[in-house]
């Protein structure tokens, strides 16, 4: 069985282990973001990183059972937090379901993934699997009124302009490039944007 690559030394995450796929190839909804994806320069610059991410995606597509078995085989070394997809995204419902199974098998580990695969179903995930929808300045959003008459963001459009309901337990992560005016007033601002010495392993807010 071919093992996948699990990284443990990311410049932003710190010591939080993470698994990645190739940007674009291993994404469902990337037409509008691939040109500004932070992972693209990484695979162009670092050959070994590209090979590792490419192999992860190949194993996932060709032998998904082997892909997820790699995590169960390493059960004793997984710490308290795990980041899914520094690069890449969920590519199918079975991919999502595989991570749901892993999260259930590791109840003491908090898993987290940012995603633009809005069309997939994340409803049956356990509490230790956090899914956050990524929102870019050109991402279309729709609002609805709740029972109290208050407006809330209820739907999100993918890059093909298909609309998807935002589940009540999924948060939004906003890319603030100076052009985003829709962020709520209580939005948490990532401290690492201003201070590069702060790592996700230190902050742990997301």
Model regions low in confidence, pLDDT < 50 over at least 5 residues = none
> How many strand segments?
8
Helix count from the secondary structure assignment: 5
Radius of gyration: 17 Å
Q: What fraction of residues sit in β-strands?
A: 15-25%
Helix coverage percent: 10-25%
- Mean pLDDT value: 90
Output the strand order for the largest sheet: 1-2-3-4-8
Helix-strand pattern: EHHHEHEEEEEEH
The helix/strand class is alpha/beta
Silhouette: globular
- Report, as a whole number of angstroms, the end-to-end distance: 34 Å
User: How would a crystallographer describe the biggest sheet?
Assistant: 5 strands, parallel
Description:
The chain is α/β, with parallel strands linked by helices and 206 residues long. It is built from 5 helices and 8 strands. The protein has helices at 39-45, 47-62, 64-73, 93-105, 200-203, and strands at residues 18-19, 81-84, 110-115, 129-135, 141-145, 151-157, 163-165, 171-174. The strands form 2 sheets. It has a 5-stranded parallel β-sheet. The protein has a 3-stranded antiparallel β-sheet with strand order 5-6-7, with no helix packed on it. Strand 6 (151-157) and strand 7 (163-165) form a beta hairpin. The model has no long low-confidence stretch (mean pLDDT 90).
Write a compact overview of the structure shown.
Helices cover 24% and strands 18% of the residues. It has helices at residues 39-45, 47-62, 64-73, 93-105, 200-203; strands at 18-19, 81-84, 110-115, 129-135, 141-145, 151-157, 163-165, 171-174.
């Amino acid at each position: 069985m071919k093992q996948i690559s699990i990284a443990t030394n990311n410049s932003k995450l710190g010591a939080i282990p993470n698994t990645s796929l190739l940007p674009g190839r291993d994404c469902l909804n990337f037409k509008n973001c691939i040109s500004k994806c932070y992972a693209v320069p990484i695979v162009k610059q670092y050959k070994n990183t590209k090979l590792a991410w490419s192999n992860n995606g190949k194993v996932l597509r060709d032998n998904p059972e082997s892909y997820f078995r790699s995590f169960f085989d390493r059960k004793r070394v997984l710490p308290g937090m795990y980041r899914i997809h520094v690069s890449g995204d969920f590519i199918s419902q079975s991919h999502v379901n595989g991570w749901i199974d892993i999260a259930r098998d590791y109840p003491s580990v908090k898993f987290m993934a940012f995603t633009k695969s809005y069309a997939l179903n994340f409803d049956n995930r356990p509490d230790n699997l956090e899914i956050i929808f990524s929102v870019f300045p050109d991402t279309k959003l729709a609002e609805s009124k709740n029972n109290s008459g208050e407006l809330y963001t209820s739907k999100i459009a993918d890059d093909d302009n298909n609309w998807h309901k935002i589940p009540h337990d999924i948060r939004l992560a906003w890319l603030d490039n100076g052009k985003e005016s829709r962020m709520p007033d209580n939005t948490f601002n990532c401290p690492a944007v201003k201070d590069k010495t702060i790592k996700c392993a230190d902050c742990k807010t997301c």
